[in-house]
Amino acid sequence: MTARGTDWGLAALVALLIATGILTLFAGSSHDAWVFDAHDALGAAIALLLVVKLRRVWSRLLTPSRWDPRTAAGLAGTALVLAALASGWLWSGGLDTAILGYSLLGWHEAVGAALAVAVAAHMVARTKPLRRRDLAHRRQFFAAAGIGAASLLAWRLERPAQGLVGLRGAKRRFTGSYEAASFAGNAFPTTSWVADNPRPISLDGYRLRVGGLVARELALAPVQLSAGDELTATLDCTGGFYSTQRWRGISLGRVLDLAQPHVDAHHVRVVSRTGYRWSFSLADARRLLLATHVGDEALSHEHGAPLRLVAPGARGFQWVKWVERIDLLEHPDYGAPASTLWSSFTSAGRGQP
Ligand code: HEM
User: Fold this and answer.
1) What's the distance, Cα to Cα, between the start and end of the chain in Å?
2) Where are the beta strands (DSSP E) in the chain?
3) For the segment 23-61, what is each residue's pLDDT rounded down to a tens digit?
């Protein structure tokens, strides 16, 4: 392979790994499994191409007199790729360790983000254009096809091999998450996207308000929310655990029917006490539940009492906790993703009255 072909190949693989990595954060239903499959196979491909690259530059790396300022940048990039590979493989092999309070998967995501910045800076600083022979030569084609085939094989054999040697990784969900306290009430881990940490919400005076494009605005009291509707669904956190539970409360479809959406209402926004919010299409929202209970226990404060959203197929951070308001909207709430960043800094998000 030409040097430029290898470098461009590495950059393209990093870009694809970051793109599929970001998509994994939003992929929670089984027809999204391809995102994880692609990410896993791309991980094997970049490892193989890195071997090709290191074989070429190894002798220069071992001879300090041949170093130039670019060598340091190259070494830093290589270290980040190796860190991403190591954390990815250790995680999917089943290593369950937390460093400074964050799971290995959390660190993997952070290294991925750092790599995105490093590769973008590297490409701006010293990209050399691709030539015809970097792409169209027969040897380039055979090398790329060989790496592609070997990566697919590695991805296909990974789980069976993990099962054979008894690694926990063989039992992980297609999202890479590991099971935690399914059907055990509030015992599953409590996590919050960023750091929302409101005060416990008293039931006295609590009302779920429903407004926006509706014929009837509502203010539902806790007793009205315990409607006995049930849904068995898996909460799958991007931090790397999943927990399947029988949730109980009131179906969002039932709440919407009570409020009677206008004909031009196409989206439903679910808003937390902290300002954190997420929106869903009206058709999807009808299939969701607002839970007051998990199993036979009332939801704990940490899990979002008095009311949390249960959204099967969406990742955990979209299961809004401490729900206080539902709004019917004509368009999706484009500001919702940003609210996931600032909600921890509102006074309610920081636990002030
Ligand atoms: C925003 C960035 C990223 C996110 C959110 C992310 C997310 C994930 C997730 C959820 C898994 C577990 C998948 C599974 O268990 O099958 C995983 C595994 C992995 N990731 Fe990433 N990733 C990111 C960036 C990267 C980058 C930049 C690389 C490589 C340079 C990489 C390489 C890997 C590898 C090698 C694995 C193990 C795959 C396997 O099971 O064989 N990831 N990543």
Assistant:
1) 63
2) 98-99, 102-103, 178-179, 208-212, 218-220, 229-236, 241-251, 267-272, 277-281, 289-294, 297-298, 308-310, 323-329
3) 999 999 999 999 999 999 999 999 999 999 999 888 888
Up-side HSE of residue 318: CA atoms within 13 Å toward CB? 21
Ligand 1 atom at minimal distance to the Cα of residue 116: 27
Backbone angles phi and psi of 184, in degrees to 5: -130, 35
Which DSSP letter does residue 261 get? B
The per-residue pLDDT for range 116-154, each reduced to its tens digit, is 888 877 777 666 777 777 677 777 788 889 999 999 999
Ligand 1 centroid to Cα of residue 92, in Å, is 9
- Residues forming beta bridges with residue 241, ordered by sequence position: 178
269 lines ligand 1 (CB under 6 A): no
Q: Which atom of ligand 1 is nearest to the CA of 93?
A: 40
Question: CB neighbours of 115 closer than 8 A, spacing ≥ 6?
Answer: 14, 18, 77, 80, 81, 84
pTM, two decimals, is 0.89
Which of 25, 92, 315 most suits a substitution to test ligand 1, by most atoms within 8 Å of the C-beta?
92
What six digits make up the tokens of 110?
Answer: 């952070």
Question: 129 burial class (0-12, 13-18, 19+ CB within 10 angstroms)?
Answer: exposed
Take atom 15 of ligand 1 and give the residue whose Cα is closest.
Answer: 176
Contacts (Cβ under 8 Å, ≥6 apart) of 189 = 180, 181, 237, 239, 241, 243
DSSP 157: H
Is 46 touching ligand 1 by the criterion CB < 6 Å?
A: yes
Q: What is the b/e burial string over 321-334, where b = at least 16 CB atoms within 10 angstroms of the residue's CB?
A: bbbbbbbbbeeebe
Mutating to test ligand 1, I would choose from 10, 16, 23, 39 the residue with most ligand atoms within 8 A of its C-beta, which is: 39
Q: Are strands 297-298 and 241-251 parallel, antiparallel or unpaired?
A: unpaired
Grouping H, G, I as helix, E, B as strand and the rest as coil, residue 176 is: coil
Q: Residue type for 120, please?
A: A
Is there an atom of ligand 1 within 6 Å of 172 CB? yes
